[in-house]
Amino acid sequence: MKKLLIYLKKYKKESILAPLFKMLEASFELLVPLVMAAIMDPGIAKQDLPYIWKMAGLLVLLAIVGLTTSLTAQYFAAKAAVSFAADVKHALFQHIQELSFGTLDEVGTSTLITRMTSDMNQVQNGVNMVLRLFLRSPFIVFGAMIMAFIINWKAAFIFVVAIPILSIVVFGIMMISIPMFQKVQEALDQVLGITRENITGVRVIRAFHQERQEEDAFHVKNEWLTRLQLTVGRVSAFMNPVTYIIVNAAVIALLWSGAVQVDDNVISQSEVVALVNYMNQILVELVKFANLIVTITKAVACGNRIQSVFELKASQDYPEITRDDERENSPYIVEFRNVSFGYHTSGDYALQNISIQIKPGETIGIIGGTGSGKSTFVNLIPRFYDVTEGSVYVDGLNVTAYSKKDLRRKIGIVMQKSVMFKGSIREILLWGNENATDEELFTALKTAQALEVVEKKELGLSEPLSQRAKNLSGGQKQRLTIARALVRKPEILILDDSSSALDYATDARLRKALSELNDSLTIFIVSQRTASIQNADRILVLDDGRIVGLGTHEELLRSCEVYQEIYDSQFKKEVQVNG
Amino acid sequence: MADQKQASKRTTMRRLGTYLKPYWFYLTASILMSLVSVSLTLYIPILTGRAVDKIIGPDKVMFEELIRVLITMGLSIAVTGIAQWVMNVCNNKMTYSIVRDVRHDAIQKIEQLPLKYIDAHTSGEIVNHVITDVDQFADGLLMGFTQLFTSVMTILGTLIFMLTIHPGVTLVVVGITPLSLFVASFVARKTYHLFLEQSERRGEQTGIIDEMIGNQKVVQAFSKEEDVLRDFDDKNERLKACSLKAIFFSSITNPATRFVNSMVYAGVGIAGAIVAIRGGMSIGQLTSFLGYANQYTKPFNEISGVITELQNAFACAGRIFALIDEEPQLPDDEDAVILENVEGQVDIQNVSFSYQPEDQLIIDLSLHVKPGQRIAIVGPTGCGKTTLINLLMRFYDVDSGAILVEEKDIRHVTRESLRNSYGMVLQDTWLKTGTIRENICMGHPDASEESMIEAAKLAHAHSFIMRLPQGYDTMIRENSDSLSQGQKQLLCIARVMLTHPPMLILDEATSSIDTRTEIRIQKAFHHLMEGRTSFIVAHRLSTIQEADVILVMKDGNIIEQGSHEELLTGHGFYYELYNSQFAS
User: Fold this and answer.
1) 3-state class of A351 per DSSP?
2) In A201-268, alpha helices (H)
3) Contact between A89 and B415 using a beta-carbon 8 Å cutoff
4) What pLDDT is stored for residue A420 in this prediction?
5) Which residues pair with B376 in a beta bridge?
6) How far apart are the first and last CA of chain A?
7) In what helix (H) or strand (E) does residue A495 lie, and over which residues does it extend?
8) What is the pLDDT of residue B279?
9) What is the number of other CB atoms lying within 10 angstroms of the CB of residue A138?
10) How far apart, in whole angstroms, are the C-alpha atoms of residue A29 and residue B262?
11) Cross-strand partners of B533
């Protein structure tokens, strides 16, 4: 949280003025009982009507001044909180964009989204409330005590005793009940979980006639939740009655001690009334303050989570400018030299000792089971991840010597999940290259077999697509993402299992069109389906992160056992049953 | 429309009444206690005033009378405290118990709802009814009513107490107080559109965060970081501007009502002082009055808050009761037969079915399946292949015609025995939260350790289960990634393996399962199908080729049926499908 607070520095003026004005308001409020006491004595006591009017006028004046200072404070607080939040969000967004793929995998994007949205809102609210109330409430509580001392130090001792007892009760009950509320929340989450399970799994539950058992399981969790709620309810049920009793007991004590001193002519009747008024003010502010503490705790927790995002290192350094002088004279467009790679999360290597050389214009098919390292292999080419050992060369230059932009410009990648952003089809395609002409877009669409997607639309390229392109089928989306990558006119095109939603015929047409593109385009096709890659110049077969085969379809069918197995499972009768 | 609303409100109230009934004792106690606590709370300022009046001046303090007043005060305070506590406890007991009862009824209904209802609603929607709606309804209706009750009592009580002291000064309070309500509602009205705008802008921003951070890898792959940040900043600035306005203007409410309160206070001060000078009121009474003046606006503000909450609670209650009152599926016939010794003969006789009347899906389908036969259902995605599963399992009832198992109409056999006759493995691999053991033994909770392991071995699941840190006691959580899709499917197969069903319903996975696991799944499927009547939603060529009958579906209709060879020579849709999907 601390590191976030430096973003408040820019709004120093607001952050100081807001609580200051709040305190001003509080001090005016503290004057009210004194003025009222003056109305009673000397006002009423001396039957001095003009004086009473004057004092009443003073009350109105205090109210007006209080209103103005309070509004000023609210404004500064809101301004500081909102601007602070906006600045932090900007910095956070920028920071997340610099994170490497490895870090993104580790943290998970959904976590990052929560940090930026709901956590950020909590922090903004927390800052706002702190600026408004953090000084005001204690100020009134202690201010009331000081006023009591000004009036009469003997009576003031009742304040000295009552305030700590009240604080202990209020904060004690909160401290006991807050962790209990968290438990209630957990129990509620479980009830929610089992409810959802009963709906998503309805077919299986009924197929296994488990309705009764599920109902019983729900009942157990439901009972548990109720029990927890009742327990925490029993604790928080004490809050109001106990504080009420303490405050009023203090009032009784004040009246008694006041009576004794009035009798001895130390203070006046109206001053006793003022003392009682001060005591009544304390409780409201203490409760407010306790609630504020809850808000602050929440905000600090959220703030710490946000700060932990800031503490994530980019973990990859890119040179500002590509170090072209290190370029070797190489006949290969992509070269892996003894590459091993392990993700942070699992100790095992995802790729082990991979060496391969690829010439410009080659089409390379990559196949293997899940977890065999296919995606990892292609992700190393645009340096989405850094190798653990060995090195990857693109066009004769180590990928670590490229600036981020230069390297990515060479490569068009189509990922497994077709991701598209809101906007028109044109805007989506221009992501590939913002200077592309419509003509170039159409060429790319044609190669990607996506012309029909556009032709069916009334507005053609300008047709807007909704978020996540819900109005397109899976196959249409894949073809559009392929077109987007082609718009780049990349030297290297990577299709990472990105034609899985296409039917075989379209897939075949796509591969044909790709092969007819310019001769120097190098293509990597990752696929589960042998049909998609069998026409590649060379096929790389991966198993458990190792190369177990490299060659043409025919060669591999003869020599590579894993490849044969995969091929057979897709094309041949497997086991003769009923035969 | 309004009448309808009234009527539904009335039924909601009646339903609430039936839920309240078992807790009438707590309700009565709560009302009684709140009466006690409200009246005594209001009595305290009077007592304070009286005490002040006993402290007139030097040597004039009436100690004996003062002590009596103070003792009364002490007693009142103690009784109030106890009453408040009892009231809180009663309210808690009542609220949480009713919440529990409503949820219990809801889940009971969910278990009995026809699939039609569940398919027509998203799971989130139904979960929302059971969780959020119930909470809000309980909080809103029960707490709302108690709060409304105490607030109204407080207002009335205060009025009465003030009138007994001095009607004239009461007028001042009653006259100025509404101003506070007016100000509050004015600010609320004025800021409403600001909040609307803020939530719109916030939605915009969440949208871009969701989109760009959620797909950060694509952003980076296309080196679009700067453009995206610019876009974000733009939205960020706009949100900031309108947030500032919304937060500031809404924060006017508190100072403004406080200001009105101060006016009331000053008003009472001056009016009371004037009256007091004329001897119409003592200092103590003025003190009591000031005490009331300070609190008088509070219940009004509470009421306005409670009313919106009540409206919301009524809507929530309506939704949850609608779920509970939903028509359950037809119960089993009273003389329903228990299917026994099923060999696997299934007859589909002139069956027609549709989810929506205007959209006929299956028209006049007939099929005779001999024990041990394999039926493959093929067709492009989204053609309604699962409809047949729904009918066979009797998740839905046919519109006309009949489905017979062992020559018995499935509508006249118990659901339990019908569903027991089938083993079902769906593509959507649903596992419940619990251990692997619990999941495999789902249909057979008292299965022995040996038979469970045997089933897992047959399903090719044993070896990977043993590699997990806790073996069969590994916990599976919803959406957890600890198991791959393929492994989950193997568990589903093991689950069926353990129950030895005479008939099978299988839904082959389309993609995303790695080849080697898939080979295992295929083997497990084959093992499972031996000697059993099987219905398979098929994607693999080998499965299709080995089927005795292939049903070809398109747009929800079964358009062709026959063996692989028959269908190929027919040169129909199957022929086209076969060539486009499998010929390379």
Assistant:
1) strand
2) 202-207, 211-236, 239-263
3) no
4) 77
5) B536, B550
6) 70
7) strand A492-496
8) 86
9) 16
10) 9
11) B503
Question: What's the mean pLDDT in B546-554?
Answer: 85
Residue B45, pLDDT > 80, answer yes
More confident residue, A505 or B316: B316
Q: Are the Cβ atoms of B276 and A44 closer than 8 angstroms?
A: yes
Tokens representing A194 are: 């089992």
CB contact under 8 A, A198 and B237: no
Distance CA B387, CA B394 (A): 10
Q: What is the pLDDT of residue A294?
A: 80
Let me know if A533 is exposed, middle or buried by CB neighbors in 10 A (0-12, 13-18, 19+): buried
Name, of B174-178, B215-219, B409-413, B549-553, the range with top average pLDDT.
B409-413
The CA distance from B220 to B226, in Å, is 10
For B247, the closest of A128, A193, A382 (CB atoms) is A128
φ, ψ for residue B357, nearest 5 deg: -50, -35
Instruction: Classify B338 as helix, strand or coil.
Output: coil
Instruction: Give the residue among A248, A290, A251, A304 at the shortest CA–CA distance from A274.
Output: A251
**Tokens linked to B17:** 């009444």
Classified as helix, coil or strand, A547 is strand
User: How many contacts does A have with B, using Cβ atoms within 8 A?
Assistant: 404
pLDDT at A173 over 70: yes
Distance from the Cα of A195 to chain B's closest Cα (Å) equals 6
Number of H helices, E strands in chain A: 22, 12
Residue B486: list chain A partners with CB under 8 A: 370
What is the per-residue pLDDT for B582?
A: 53
Contact call for B213 and A112, based on CB within 8 A: yes
3-state class of A402 per DSSP? coil
One-letter amino acid of A466? S
Q: Which residue of B118, B131, B243 is in closest CB contact with A195?
A: B131
- Give A175 to chain B, closest Cα distance, Å: 19
The type of residue at B106 is A
Angle at B284 between CA B280 and CA B285, to 5 degrees: 50
Round to whole Å and give the CA distance between B72 and B484.
73
In whole angstroms, how large is the CA radius of gyration of chain A?
Answer: 36
Q: Is B370 on the interface with A (CB under 8 A)?
A: no
Which of B193, B223, B221, B227 shows the shortest CA–CA distance to B208?
Answer: B227
Q: Do residues B300 and B121 touch, judged by C-beta distance below 8 A?
A: no
Position of tokens 């039609």? B116
CA-nearest residue of chain A to B243?
A82
pLDDT at A307 over 60: yes
Q: List pLDDT tens digits, range A185-207.
A: 889 888 988 898 888 888 888 88
Question: d(Cα A565, Cα B462) in Å, to the nearest integer?
Answer: 22
Give the pLDDT confidence of A415-452 residue by residue, as tens digits. 877 777 778 888 888 888 888 898 999 999 999 888 88
Q: Domains of chain A by range and CATH?
A: 2-310 (1.20.1560.10), 324-571 (3.40.50.300)
Regarding pTM above 0.80, the answer is no
pLDDT single digits (tens) B368-396: 899 989 998 887 655 667 788 889 989 89
CB contact under 8 A, A44 and B277: yes
* Minimal CA separation from B14 to chain A, in Å: 24
Q: How many CB atoms lie within 10 A of CB A204?
A: 23
Indicate left, alpha or beta for A183 from its phi (over 0: left) and psi (-120 to 50: alpha).
Answer: alpha
Instruction: List B residues 469-508 in contact with A (Cβ-Cβ < 8 A).
Output: 478, 484, 486, 495, 499
- Averaged confidence pLDDT in chain A: 87
**Chain CA centroid to CA A170, Å:** 33
**Closest CA–CA distance from residue B1 to any residue of chain A (Å):** 33
ipTM over 0.90: no
Check if B341 contacts A (Cβ < 8 Å).
no
Q: CB B244 to CB A79 under 8 A?
A: yes
Structure confidence at residue B584 as a pLDDT band (50, 70, 90): very low
